[in-house]
Amino acid sequence: xxxxxxxxxxxxxxxxxxxxxxxxxxxxxxxxxGLVGPNGxxxxxxxxxxxxxxxxxxxxxxxxxxxxxxxxxQLARVGFLAQDSPVYPxxxxxxxxxxxxxxxxxxxxxxARGRVDRLDLRPTQKAGTLxxxxxxxxxxxxxxxxxxxxxxxxxxxASLDPLARREFLQDLMEAVAEQELSVVLSSHLVxxxxxxxxxLIVLVGSQVRVAGPVEELLATHYLLTGPCRDxxxxxxxxxxxxxxxxxxxxxxxxRTDGEILDPxxxxxxIGLEDLVLAYLSQATRRRRRDNHQHLEVQR
Amino acid sequence: MIEFHLDGRSGVAPYRQLIHxxxxxxxxxxxxxxxxxPKVKDVVAGLAxxxxxxxxxxxxxxxxxxxxxxxxxxxxxxxxxxxxxLAAHAPLRRDLRRWLTRxxxxxxxxxxxxxxxxxxxxxxxxxxxx
Lengths: 299, 130
What we know:
The structure holds two protein chains of two kinds.
Chain A: E1 3-14, E2 17-28, E3 32-36, H1 43-51, E4 58-63, H2 72-77, E5 78-81, H3 93-103, H4 109-118, H5 132-145, E6 150-154, H6 162-179, E7 182-186, H7 190-196, E8 199-204, E9 207-213, H8 214-220, E10 221-227, E11 239-245, E12 249-255, E13 266-269, H9 272-298
Parallel strand pairs in A: 3-7, 3-8, 5-6, 6-7
Antiparallel strand pairs in A: 1-2, 1-4, 8-9, 10-12, 10-13, 11-12
Helix pairs in contact in A: 4-5, 5-6
Chain B: H1 14-27, H2 40-47, H3 51-63, E1 67-70, E2 74-77, H4 89-105, H5 110-129
Antiparallel strand pairs in B: 1-2
Helix pairs in contact in B: 1-3
């Protein structure tokens, strides 16, 4: 399968701080990919590098097989919706469509007009007076009407109320069904991702913690509960993602391609949100432990 | 035409929920041979879910021989669910209700009734397999 975004040891530094460091990942085509991670994981930096708004300090990035924003053609192939869906407040809805038509060689005027009609946006209304949800919908209209092969969205629904959020995602999914787009969207709202994404990447501190088709991830992770035992004694094929103990009970989250055969365990499936949280907290625990070791050395 | 809904808290994969709802509608006589299933685009727009989820559900139903896709037109029901005709449901339902009344008279609450049914169902199936 071809990759829509491929990076190798990619890094971006602002003065002394690395916003993204040593990031290597591959995002397959034909999916709606959810990019999840805590604040500061480098999600926005990565997406800005992918659309060519930023230039890398180190490493390489290829988008649809080309260098980001390297040419007119490359620009036309990628649609981007930045955080908080920016529009021009002083321009009307119709002005935005005109602008889109002028700036994009493959502009689909019919699609744009159809969407604006359906969304009940008045063409003469200034974008600055639109509600948050309408603004996001207008920005999405511009991004899909340019008919990109890849649509990149940075936290598209974070600032929307639940209804506007649902409507936005409905519209996005409809565009995916109609245009066969590849989509990469970053978010920290895992509940929304669960419905719309079929591929998930968890990014923590510029590193991929886990990546794969959502269904495969859900089918290979199990929550095991049973009498106290050392997770180190689990069979070789079972990778421990997280473990917790009480005085009588042990709970572990394992990843395995095989079945859980040990009858001592009560086996439960795990939802996407819990799965993501387990990987996120695994990362923080590791960092705490590293800090701890660091202190030991200093002493 | 049926309308799909999703239960986000059920823990059941969305594509399975769609399959289940089609089978359920067939069983209850809401869908018949020749009826059209909602278009993928409409399901996607209605539920805000990934198109691949709907396609996967429809593919699986097709594999089971319950529906067939006509390219460019839609997906249609091709056969009724095998098994007991709807008419046979009524007496069974009557028996079950009678049993439920007895269970309540014996002092069982909803949860105990469900647990009892599920465990009896399971052990009966296990005996079948063994």
